[in-house]
Amino acid sequence: AAGVIQSPRHLIKEKRETATLKCYPIPRHDTVYWYQQGPGQDPQFLISFYEKMQSDKGSIPDRFSAQQFSDYHSELNMSSLELGDSALYFCASSLAVNRKRMSSYNEQFFGPGTRLTVL
Amino acid sequence: AQTVTQSQPEMSVQEAETVTLSCTYDTSENNYYLFWYKQPPSRQMILVIRQEAYKQQNATENRFSVNFQKAAKSFSLKISDSQLGDTAMYFCAFMGQNTGFQKLVFGTGTRLLVSP
Asked: B residues 15-74 near A, CB within 8 Å?
């Protein structure tokens, strides 16, 4: 079965440079989530998108921006990179959640992650 | 804000034995889900088991089962007949209706080592 695809898998950047991470959801999944996992840390929610609109926002720095495109893939753009941005960035996808229904959870399927190293 | 606490940074168990990983959480919501995720050395996040808060019956998936104590806000994972492939980081996670079931909140993780 098709899984979430993330590219690149590894990325090395210098401080103050810009990085773009891409996420291709599972076919027919219309919701995308981004998480950041620092070294030895738990994953932290950054942002999510449904139907090209931002649906929720977590602790995402102002230097980061993201968007979802008409084919549902998403890109996370990171500017003015800092050493502390070095982390594993996960993308997850799911079917849309019906927030009005009590049991409207849809499983988030995680990609393999992009390891970003800022030197 | 919801918080998830895993008080065991590391656990060890021998192959074929049973081990229990602890998790507590804090929330004022009534409608939520709890999860255990496994992160092996490959760093892939793998869903192990899920529990709906409104279900009293504890979830079970093969060798994995949970003990969900809603009043105590406790959600432990029991791994029976441990296998070498169970060696991984295990994260407990919460997802609530107030955030539209969008956002997973993770605990700090428990590193499990299964030895022969």
From this structure: 31, 33, 42-47, 50, 52, 54
